[in-house]
């Protein structure tokens, strides 16, 4: 069974903020690999982690992880 992909806009927002994966990971408190997996859509973050990412990127959870056509 194939793993579900979780589409998000974390990578674009991170790049707009001028942050590397490592810098975002450090500010959020996770590994760089975790940020990579989130950006690839192979890992869906917990609500707490999604909130932290949104806070660091100056965004909202809805903007980063919401439906594209919503």
Describe the protein in words:
This protein is mainly alpha-helical and 70 residues long. It has one domain: Orthogonal Bundle (434 Repressor (Amino-terminal Domain)). Helix content is 57%, strand content 0%. It has five helices and no strands. Helix 2 (21-28) crosses helix 3. It is globular.
Please describe the topology of this protein.
Layout: H1 10-16, H2 21-28, H3 32-40, H4 47-57, H5 61-65
Helix pairs in contact: 2-3
Oligomer: single chain
Strand tally is 0
Query: Percent of residues in beta strands?
Result: under 5%
Secondary structure tally, helices:
5
Measure the end-to-end span. 28 Å
CATH topology: 434 Repressor (Amino-terminal Domain)
Q: Could you tell me the mean pLDDT?
A: 91
Q: Major β-sheet, in short?
A: none
Structural class, by secondary structure, is mainly alpha
What order do the helices and strands follow?
Answer: HHHHH
CATH architecture term: Orthogonal Bundle
Label the overall shape.
globular
CATH level-4 homologous superfamily: lambda repressor-like DNA-binding domains
CATH class: Mainly Alpha
Return the domain count. 1
